[in-house]
Design a protein that fits this description.
Chain A has about 280 residues and is of the alpha/beta class. Helix content of chain A is about 50%, strand content about 10%. Chain A folds into two domains: about 10-35 and about 250-285; about 45-245, Rossmann fold. Chain A has helices at about 10-15, 20-35, 45-55, 75-90, 105-120, 140-145, 150, 190-200, 215-220, 230-240, 245-285, and strands at about 60-70, 95-100, 130-135, 175-185, 205-210, 230. The mean pLDDT of chain B is about 85. Classes of the chains: A alpha/beta (about 280), B mainly alpha (about 250). At the A-B interface, helix 2, helix 5, helix 6, helix 9 and helix 10 of A face helix 3, helix 5, helix 6, helix 7 and helix 8 of B.
């Protein structure tokens, strides 16, 4: 059915063609990416929790970072991963990357670690390593709790995990001081909490896409999560904590004004709606 | 495993059904018993604990066969599309071309064994792989997902109307959370002192309050409901009571 063109301004406010909305949103994002208006970023308590958890890892213990994300969520999870790795390198904490779902994340996470590792002159196998993608999800978690080198087998580059220098004293999950799950997938946290954090009391932190984070505040509230990075905001806050502004900070400028635009559009739409309704009611009287 | 496979091939449909139900039951029972059976001495170990690691690795290996099954299934479906020139067959051809190209160059790149640090000019198979992965696959996936932002903006504008008090409440909460999540929101209320009795009215604090005090209980209730449902569902699968599975299709 063909839609009738809106007759007056109030109706027009409710029916802005979607193409204009897309164009406006694109314009705002491009404008802020090219010429950002920098505003101060204050780290929230959940982000500070992740940062503090990294720094609190005892000497001799390993941090396990599970990069269960792919290119579809890279805009958020990529900067989150980079900021978390920066925090690990700055604190001098050894870490191992791994991947349980979205196998693409094994390479994308590795690319970031290689790049950041170069900046900190960190040698592979000494300060950090990548266990690669391991199929089996919950079975991998159950097995790695008892024997990490045997469960992981070969690393991302095909070398035996047991042969890596930094893995010489790592045997079971008890040698892990913190697990950080970076993901855009549901149910990963539930498995980590149920099989690792709960039974072995291993500190656990996570980084989620903004759209899924609301579902995980309950784990933060219960103390099962030490901290949480929420979308690009979490990445930007972590970048401010490690004093290395990057993609997360840049994205926040664009996201800031995109949110303002969406709120303005909703207000305009409702203004038109309320005034049209008021006029119709006046006519009825 | 070979014995189970041989039995599966030898038995009739009814026997297969019982075999699969038995294996499912024993596998579920193993994990259940290991988790709940009281431990002696070592607080996290009982007589089944030592078997967790080999059994879990065995299940991981079996699970990995599903990747092969997935590839076979895709090739079967798309192969028929191409062979019979069905509508959209060119999409199926694109699937084969992209899968073969990615497979060949990913395996090739994996076995190149580049020196550390890698040379300034990468060997061409590595270069092709980087173009395919970082230049094509990753941006295509990211672009598809980022389109959502535009749909959400348009949908929020069209659907979010204050038709009732509840809708107004929801809009208020949405505005607080949206602004509380971004620096511009923090800037709007930056005149309010960051500590003291009025600090609560800063947008980022209000946003946190909405997430922690309103969102968390609601999410916890939902999670609790899902967990109870999942437990019931797991029980049905474990006892092979679930309809519409392999068995009923065969029957």
């Amino acid at each position: 059915m063909e839609q009738r063109p809106p007759s007056d301004l109030w109706q027009r406010l409710q029916q802005v063609p979607r193409h204009y909305i897309y164009l406006l949103l694109s314009g705002v994002i491009v404008w802020q990416l090219l010429a950002p208006i920098r505003l101060p970023i204050l780290p929230s308590p959940p982000t500070r929790g992740v940062y503090d958890a990294i720094r609190a890892v005892p000497a001799g213990k390993l941090i396990v970072i599970s990069t269960d994300w792919d290119a579809s969520t890279q805009a958020e999870t990529g900067p989150q991963t980079r900021a978390v790795l920066e925090a690990c390198f700055q604190a001098g904490k050894p870490f191992a990357l791994m991947n349980l779902a979205s196998p693409m994340g094994a390479k994308l996470g590795n690319d970031i670690a290689v790049e950041v590792g170069k900046e900190y002159h960190a040698e592979y196998g000494m300060v950090w390593c990548n266990w690669g993608y391991k199929a089996g999800f919950t079975n991998v978690l159950l097995a790695m709790a008892r024997n990490i080198p045997k469960t992981m087998g070969q690393d991302f580059y095909g070398k035996p995990v047991a042969a890596l220098h930094m893995m010489q004293k790592v045997r079971t999950i008890r040698d892990v001081g913190l697990v950080i799950e970076i993901t855009g997938l549901a149910n990963m946290t539930e498995a980590w909490v149920g099989l690792i954090q709960g039974p072995y009391r291993i500190p656990f932190a996570a980084a989620y896409t903004a759209v899924m984070a609301p579902g995980y505040y309950q784990f933060l509230d219960s103390g099962q999560l030490e901290g949480m990075l929420v979308g690009a905001k979490g990445a930007a806050e972590m970048e401010s904590l490690v004093n290395r502004p990057g993609a997360g900070t840049a994205i926040m400028s664009a996201q800031s004004w995109a949110h303002v635009l969406i709120i303005a559009l909703i207000i305009f739409g409702n203004l038109g709606f309320v005034l049209t309704r008021a006029r119709e009611k006046g006519r009825e009287r | 495993m070979l014995l189970l496979y041989a039995l599966h091939r030898l038995l009739g449909p009814r026997g297969r059904r019982w075999l699969i139900a038995l294996v499912t039951f024993v596998a579920g029972l193993f994990y259940g018993l290991e988790y709940f059976y009281p431990a002696k001495g070592n607080p996290s170990a009982n007589f089944l604990t030592k078997w967790i690691e080999p059994v879990s690795i065995m299940f991981s290996v079996i699970g990995f066969f599903t990747v092969g099954l997935g590839v076979y299934s895709l090739c079967h479906v798309h192969g028929r599309n191409v062979a019979r020139r069905r509508p959209g067959w060119h999409n199926s051809l694109a699937f084969f071309l992209s899968m073969i190209a990615m497979l060949v160059f990913a395996v090739w790149e994996h076995y190149l064994h580049l020196p550390e640090p890698p040379p300034a000019v990468l060997p061409w198979p590595k270069g092709v792989y980087e173009v395919l992965f970082n230049g094509l696959f990753a941006p295509l996936q990211a672009a598809t997902f980022s389109l959502l932002a535009f749909y959400i903006a348009s949908a929020a504008y069209r659907a979010f109307r204050i038709r009732s008090a509840e809708a107004a409440l929801m809009m208020g909460a949405a505005f607080i959370v949206m602004l509380g999540q971004v620096p511009v929101g923090m800037w709007l209320t930056s005149a309010i002192p960051a500590s003291g009795p009025t600090a609560f009215f800063r947008l980022e604090k209000l946003g946190e309050w909405v997430m922690n005090w309103l969102n968390t209980p609601a999410q916890r209730g939902i999670t609790f409901g899902i967990a109870v449902g999942a437990m019931a569902m797991s029980l049905r699968v474990w006892l092979s009571l679930e309809r519409g599975t392999f068995f009923s299709e065969q029957a």
